[in-house]
Amino acid sequence: MRLYYLGFLVSLLCFSTNIYTQTLELMPFAENLRRPVDIAHAGDDRLFVVEKDGTIVILRPDGQVDNTPFLDIRNRVNAFANERGLLGLAFHPDYTQNGFFYVHYTNNQGNSVISRFTRDSNNPDRALPGSELILMTVNQPFNNHNAGDLNFGPDGFLYIGMGDGGSGGDPGNRSQNPRDLLGKMLRVDVNGDAPYTIPDTNPFKGNADTLQEIWSLGWRNPWRFSFDRLTGDMWIADVGQNAWEEINMEPPGRGGLNYGWRCYEGNNTFNTTGCRPRENYTFPVHVYPNRFDVGCSVTGGYVYRGSKFPKLYGKYIYTDFCTGIFWMLERSGNNWINTQLGDFDNQDFATFVEDSSG
Question: CATH homologous superfamily of domain 31-343?
Fold first, then answer.
């Protein structure tokens, strides 16, 4: 597979400075990658590309890929189903000192694993496969809706997106179950006792009825979330069932929210059996229809905070896996404005990356 270059994000598009009148064009940036599903940086000019089968490779600024993987854990990763595999990567904020990074993968038993690995102290381009420290293992009842993203927030805590466990329609109602990690956004502190501790400010800490790792509830399959590096806002793209794809925005510190699935899909009711009144749920800032000419699986991106394209500054950029349409989303007063940036040949766009310079 290819990676594509995006002049304002380092991954997908290249265009001239007036985005409202000029044509956008896709530009290949790197070749011969095996199903890349996530990309991250470690504070320098390297990009680390997560390949679904269980490897992480280093991508250089000239588009060349190192021959030897940074990490190879294919013997631990079950990537046979379309939504299983090595799915997410996040470097510790103090990676240059401690060499820690975190991954989200499906193990050979089909369950989700969150683990810490350590860089080889003798070689900055290699990790130590034997250094794995498993933070948590979450049982998966089906082989889809594994989500897979994880990121450090501006608060220094590790956020982990978990899908609802799969099948269709969340048959176990796991997303609304406060005693189940599936269908949740989790937040843990990896800087204290191993493997992690619960931050004092987690919204359900001390609540015997809710697992204390839970930051928010009501997710179906959050496929890529990110933090605005200026404001700290959290942006979450949640893949819909069969009618609506949604973009959610959470201001800093707003833990404990319930985003509605399976009671609601987007802004519309889905299955309200056992659900609370509508005012108890938080709804998306934007939805679009699950339709063959628009898209069927949202891929979340980033708020652009670079300097090269000022007309994009402060806009959230995202796409769809099924159509290759790119959009930007911005707030205008109390409203949200969504603008199409381009409609390209479908290339199964699975992720974005923000480089160390934004």
Answer: TolB, C-terminal domain (2.120.10.30)
